[in-house]
């Protein structure tokens, strides 16, 4: 109480002193000095909050006289009153009364100009927190803005934002524009509620005309101060913090700023600022925080780290300049072509995330980005031109990637931008009634990219198989431009009848047609300069026969005659309407029409209907799930009656390339969900009924089951054993799918679709018929399938339970053995301990067939026991190898679905390693001797450029070729098949499994198998040899490292081989897998080798360490320009400024960027987000903690190599993260990012705090930290929001110790509300 009385007396004395000095007209400085002494003696902290309140209350408005204002200004000047608090107090008193007190308003703005841009003294003073708390109480900042954080720095941002907003609202009110805002008022008082206030006549304010003139001048001054706030280096950066962290308030502020710019006469007449400049200053594109780092010259650093203009001539396509930007796309596209394993994620989704990451990190324009994407996809197709023939067709899949997947990815980018523009338009009242047809900049960039694409003629030449289609696309444009009078069936006739014409069609014509089909372009593209040669219109037939059949005939209502069906099967649909027409027939037509429609959908429209492919797939998926008829009352499943129809669909989509196309579109989980009910129903049927097909054949429920089951098994690597049971060199299965996983993904896809705005945009493109039930399904819904899968896993783990005599399974086992070995007479010797003698009579065979009229699931359950008995009998000499192979072949022919069990059982037995080897001598087992030596020489040629040693096959003479018995049995089975369309479906399932199994066996099992298959299918010899060559790396981890090293050196142009001397994509990926150059097999590009074998690397975790090491070695080689050491020594002694060796820093950084891009791509492709996580959490910290010496060159280069190494790691790590998690939070994988990124930045902060001792070079560490943070801030700002604020503050502090103030402040500026205060204080402390 005593203190309160003393304080009251003190301030009464201060007020009295002020009044006395005012009456005496004392000197303001003398008054201020006297007052300062009094307050200091009384122990009052300066600047004083209480003094600010007292002085403002004294002036407003009882002492509104010049000397009182002088006293107040001098109090601010000598720092006894806090300027920000005085401004706050004046604003709530002066601004509402500015009409009656224009002089006071003018003085308020003068004080603003003098004191509002200097914040350093207050925030460095002892009363900083008290001052900001008082400002909050005066302006009610926490209440108005609603921020949970009330730190002084946050209040400081709110104060600056409020000051400029108060001036803005006052200016709008002065010109009568405030009524035009949606709120029609200000959040602060702009008009006094007491209209009778009169001040002294010191400024002759009673003269209305003078007041009016002064008011206009004041409004102009207020507008100019608003401009100063936006232009001033300090306040503009503080306002940037408000823009980032208070978006809703900033949006309202910007709307009012736009209103001022559009309507203010004062602004238009201002000599100091224009409406255009004002809008530019508030634009979201304006950069006010730099991400420049000072470790090296900022201009040098960002010229290469954030540059990316795709300015290169066509003849540099395979060189380093272009490759540095888009190499990851090339690698992803090529890796996606590997058909050995289906993917559960859409290639469109992955490609979209990848391109978005590269666009953000490289800082390229969208037209450059689109151009780079098209070029990468075209390179993929060109690599397929000279591909050696093999069992897996790829051209249609490559064309799908170019014309369907890539186009859909571009569509997503354009939709994303335009949906945002539509949302913005909907929030503007004046546009509510307008048609929402908004075109964004990305659509224009697409046009530019496609126009520039015409300059890359080397990539546009169409492969022979699609040259006709390209010509037809060019003919369509010529016809349109020429205005040829053609009917709707004209172009269709030309397409179907291969009419002779040469319109110089190329791949760009096909790309443009794909974009037009998806409404990304319109027909104005036909008029682009040089797009087509109209002079070739004479190449096009002028008339067509009246009886031409095709999709136009169907649309006119023609019935599905055999000739029309053949035409529709051979020609892809060109529009969604045509597909919907055939789909309606498949749903509502007669049984024959349904089958015909299903045949059409599975024809050319599925494989080559690139412009409508996604719709075709969805229609097929929908047809595989026929609804229960309303009048159905049977006890059996309604699917039984649909058997012929379903079988047509199953057979139609079972081809290898069809499964690959489903995989690329990300519909494997949905397909699995559609196949499982079919498998469950038809696998449970007793084959007593059959259906007569139009071909005269009989269709049984077993056949339908086998077609559905084998197709289902292609969707995941069913042949891989559980990881805990893998032995020896078996390949990894960390990424293998499973039925449960596929169903989980399927349920997730359907339940989440439509929740995001991008899904809603996509759903508008889909057909009204493309709806699916969102009800989740689980493996428990299919008890028979679940039982088989459990037994399958037991079989793969080699823990098959014993066979119980007398059970139904035992009876089926005996019957199957009788059927398989009915021709063998072994004197009654049983093949199983409990079985009877084999019966060789014809009646016995017939009896066996009758007894096998059981459900397919029951046969599958018995199959492992049958195989166990047969293999044991062969191992003990009771069955010859030929008899074993014949018997197993009979089993597979009887029920092709048993191939899955045959594969899994024999694979498991190989991994057990208990069987004696089989001698491939040509007597008991087939012999590879005829061409094994040739295969060995060809493998050496394929790997010649890698420097990897090929182990000698060392077979023949006293060392005959051998295979494990189960593997020999499997190989013997496969080579008994004739390759036709019927067996193709089953061999496509066997092939990858056999390849995987043989790859895990000791050398030279795979070359032996390749030799045997090459003898059977000579035209595929090169394919088999290439497959065998990959096995070299499976058994030699050093060989994998050597291959990786070759990938780096060839890509960077550092290889001594002339083949790879130019570097870039061409050196890394070449022309595919060994085309027939010069009449023989040639070395395969190292990138192709790696992409084809990386899935078989068991210990993928070691890859991160090796890639980091190779990246650092590449940096050293880049810095030394790849020259011999004697030349490097001479070059080091030269003085080149920013040059080291013969390489300028910019050129070196470009190659460093390329090396990092390659390394990041290899890590991501090899192990996905899991390997990226291991890299960031384990490998990198370990690398920084250990002593890493790149060689003597590190010291002699003056730290250049160390610095480049740090930047290489920074770029490498950020790219790995963006590939795995995306640049935003749209993907599911992004949910794992905050934890991993937070841990890594915690490690960096702890090292900067001195809590961790590093072993790496200091220059490398500093370059890495500054480079990584710079890239983080500039390329992935959303990531910063996910990091703990304390970590950001510690990082910022460490960066400031390196004089990286700009970077430190930019980092805090992106840290959200929690870091906003620290960022504002840093801005002011450094007086930016």
Automatic annotation (TrEMBL):
InterPro entries documented for this protein: MED33A/B
Assigned GO CC terms: mediator complex
Key words, A-Z: Membrane, Transmembrane, Transmembrane helix
Membrane-spanning residues: 1154-1176, 1200-1223, 1261-1281, 1303-1324
A biological-process GO annotation: regulation of phenylpropanoid metabolic process
PANTHER family, per database record: MEDIATOR OF RNA POLYMERASE II TRANSCRIPTION SUBUNIT 33B, OS07G0681500 PROTEIN
Official protein name in the record: Mediator of RNA polymerase II transcription subunit 33A
């Amino acid at each position: 109480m005593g203190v309160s009385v003393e304080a009251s007396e003190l301030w009464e004395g201060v007020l009295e002193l002020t009044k006395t000095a005012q009456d005496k007209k004392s000197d303001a400085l003398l008054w201020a000095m006297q007052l300062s002494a009094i307050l200091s003696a009384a122990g009052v902290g300066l600047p004083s909050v209480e003094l600010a309140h007292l002085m403002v209350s004294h002036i407003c408005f009882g002492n509104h006289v010049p000397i009182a204002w002088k006293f107040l200004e001098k109090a601010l000047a000598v720092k006894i009153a806090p300027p920000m608090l005085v401004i706050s107090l004046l604003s709530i008193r002066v601004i509402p009364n500015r009409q009656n007190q224009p002089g006071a308003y003018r003085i308020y703005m003068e004080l603003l100009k003098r004191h509002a841009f200097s914040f350093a003294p207050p925030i460095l003073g002892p009363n900083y927190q008290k001052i900001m708390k008082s400002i909050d109480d005066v302006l009610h900042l926490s209440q108005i803005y609603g921020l949970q954080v009330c730190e002084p720095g946050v209040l400081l941002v709110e104060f600056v934002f409020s000051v400029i907003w108060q001036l803005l609202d006052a200016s709008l009110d002065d010109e009568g524009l405030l009524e035009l805002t949606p709120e029609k008022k200000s959040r602060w008082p702009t008009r006094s509620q007491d209209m009778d206030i009169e001040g002294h006549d010191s400024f002759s304010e009673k003269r209305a005309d003078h007041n009016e003139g002064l008011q206009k001048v004041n409004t102009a001054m207020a507008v100019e101060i608003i401009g100063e706030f936006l232009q001033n280096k300090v306040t503009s950066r503080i306002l940037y913090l408000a823009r980032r962290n208070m978006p809703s308030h900033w949006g309202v502020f910007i709307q009012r700023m736009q209103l001022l710019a559009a309507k203010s006469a004062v602004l238009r007449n201002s000599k100091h600022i224009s409406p255009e400049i004002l809008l530019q200053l508030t634009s979201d594109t304006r950069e006010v925080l730099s991400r420049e780092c000072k470790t090296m010259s900022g201009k040098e650093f960002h010229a290469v780290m954030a540059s990316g203009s795709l300015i290169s001539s066509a003849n540099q396509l395979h060189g380093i300049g272009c490759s540095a930007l888009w190499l990851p796309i090339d690698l992803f596209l090529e890796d996606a072509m590997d058909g050995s394993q289906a993917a559960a994620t859409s290639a469109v989704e992955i490609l979209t995330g990848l391109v978005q990451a590269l666009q953000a990190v490289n800082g390229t324009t969208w037209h450059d980005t689109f151009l780079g994407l098209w070029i990468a996809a075209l390179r993929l197709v060109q690599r397929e031109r000279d591909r050696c023939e093999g069992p897996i067709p790829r051209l249609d899949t490559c064309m799908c990637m170019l014309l369907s997947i890539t186009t859909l990815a571009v569509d997503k980018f354009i939709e994303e931008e335009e949906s945002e523009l539509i949302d913005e338009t909907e929030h503007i009242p004046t546009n509510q009634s307008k048609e929402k047809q908004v075109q964004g900049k990305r659509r224009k960039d697409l046009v530019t990219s496609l126009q520039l694409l015409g300059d890359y003629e080397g990539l546009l030449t169409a492969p022979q198989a699609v040259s006709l289609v390209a010509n037809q696309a060019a003919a369509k444009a010529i016809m349109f431009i020429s205005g040829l009078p053609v009917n709707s069936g004209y172009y269709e006739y030309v397409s179907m009848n291969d009419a002779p014409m040469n319109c110089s069609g190329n791949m760009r014509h096909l790309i443009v047609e794909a974009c037009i089909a998806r409404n990304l372009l319109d027909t104005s593209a036909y008029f682009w300069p040089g797009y087509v040669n109209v002079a070739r219109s004479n190449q096009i037939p002028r008339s067509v026969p009246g009886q031409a059949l095709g999709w136009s005939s169907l649309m006119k209502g023609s019935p599905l005659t055999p000739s029309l069906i053949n035409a529709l099967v051979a020609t892809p649909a060109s529009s969604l309407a045509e597909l919907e027409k055939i789909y309606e027939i498949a749903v509502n037509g007669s049984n024959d029409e349904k089958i015909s429609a299903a045949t059409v959908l599975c024809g050319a429209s599925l494989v080559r209907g690139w412009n409508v492919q996604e719709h075709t797939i969805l229609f097929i998926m929908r047809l595989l799930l026929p609804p229960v008829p309303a009048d159905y009352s049977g006890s059996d499943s309604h699917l039984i009656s649909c058997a012929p129809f379903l079988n047509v669909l199953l057979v139609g989509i079972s081809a290898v390339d069809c499964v690959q196309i489903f995989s690329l579109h990300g519909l494997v989980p949905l397909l699995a969900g559609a196949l499982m009910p079919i498998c469950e129903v038809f696998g449970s049927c007793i084959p007593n009924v059959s259906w007569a097909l139009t071909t005269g054949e009989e269709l049984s429920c077993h056949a339908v089951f086998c077609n559905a089951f084998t197709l289902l098994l292609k969707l995941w690597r069913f042949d891989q054993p559980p990881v805990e049971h893998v032995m020896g060199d078996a390949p990894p299965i960390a990424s293998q799918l499973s039925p449960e996983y596929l169903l989980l993904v399927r349920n997730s896809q359907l339940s989440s679709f439509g929740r995001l705005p991008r899904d809603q945009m996509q759903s508008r493109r889909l057909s009204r018929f493309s709806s699916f039930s969102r009800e989740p399904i689980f493996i428990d819904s299919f008890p028979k399938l679940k039982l088989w899968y459990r037994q399958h896993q037991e079989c793969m783990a080699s823990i098959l339970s014993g066979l119980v005599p007398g059970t139904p399974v035992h009876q089926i086992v005996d019957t199957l053995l009788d059927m398989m070995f009915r021709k063998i007479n072994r004197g009654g010797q049983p093949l199983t301990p409990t079985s009877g003698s084999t019966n060789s009579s014809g009646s016995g065979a017939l009896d066996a067939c009758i007894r096998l009229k059981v459900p397919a699931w029951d046969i599958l359950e018995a199959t492992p026991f049958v195989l166990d008995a047969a293999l044991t009998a062969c191992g003990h000499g009771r069955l010859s190898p030929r008899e074993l192979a014949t018997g197993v072949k009979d089993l597979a022919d009887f029920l092709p679905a048993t191939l899955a069990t045959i594969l899994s059982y024999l694979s498991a037995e190989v991994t057990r390693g208990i069987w004696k080897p089989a001698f491939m001598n040509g007597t008991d087992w087939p012999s590879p001797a005829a061409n094994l030596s040739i295969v060995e020489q060809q493998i050496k040629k394929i790997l010649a450029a890698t420097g990897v040693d090929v182990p000698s096959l060392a077979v023949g003479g006293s060392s005959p070729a051998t295979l494990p018995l189960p593997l020999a049995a499997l190989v013997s089975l496969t080579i008994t098949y004739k390759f036709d369309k019927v067996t193709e479906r089953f061999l496509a399932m066997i092939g990858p499994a056999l390849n995987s199994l043989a790859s895990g066996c000791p050398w030279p099992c795979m070359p032996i198998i390749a030799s045997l298959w090459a003898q059977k299918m000579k035209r595929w010899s090169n394919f088999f040899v290439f497959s065998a060559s990959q096995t070299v790396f499976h058994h030699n981890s050093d060989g994998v490292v050597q291959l990786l090293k070759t990938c780096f050196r060839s890509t960077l142009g550092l290889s001594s081989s002339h083949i790879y001397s130019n570097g870039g994509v061409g050196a890394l990926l070449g022309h595919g897998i060994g085309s027939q150059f010069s009449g023989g097999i040639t070395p395969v590009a190292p990138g192709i080798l790696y992409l084809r074998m990386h899935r078989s690397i068991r210990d993928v975790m070691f890859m991160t360490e090796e890639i980091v090491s190779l990246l650092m070695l590449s940096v050293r080689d880049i810095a030394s320009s790849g020259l011999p050491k004697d030349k490097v020594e001479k070059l080091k002694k030269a003085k080149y400024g920013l040059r080291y060796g013969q390489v300028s820093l910019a050129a070196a950084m470009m190659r460093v960027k390329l090396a990092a891009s390659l390394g990041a791509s290899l890590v991501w492709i090899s192990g996905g987000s899991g390997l990226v996580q291991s890299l960031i959490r384990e490998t990198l910290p370990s690398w920084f903690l250990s002593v890493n010496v790149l060689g003597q060159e590190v010291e002699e280069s003056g730290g250049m190599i160390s610095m480049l190494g740090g930047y290489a790691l920074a770029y490498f790590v950020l790219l790995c993260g963006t590939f795995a998690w995306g640049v935003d939070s749209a993907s599911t994988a992004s949910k794992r990012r905050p934890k991993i990124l937070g841990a890594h930045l915690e490690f960096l902060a702890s090292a900067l705090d001195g809590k961790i001792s590093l072993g790496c070079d200091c220059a490398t560490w500093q370059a890495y930290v500054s480079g990584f943070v710079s890239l983080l801030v500039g390329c992935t700002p959303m990531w910063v929001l996910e990091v703990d604020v304390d970590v950001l503050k510690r990082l910022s502090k460490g960066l400031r110790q390196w004089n990286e103030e700009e970077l430190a402040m930019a980092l805090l500026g992106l840290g959200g509300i929690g870091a906003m205060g620290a960022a504002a204080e840093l801005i002011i402390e450094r007086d930016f």
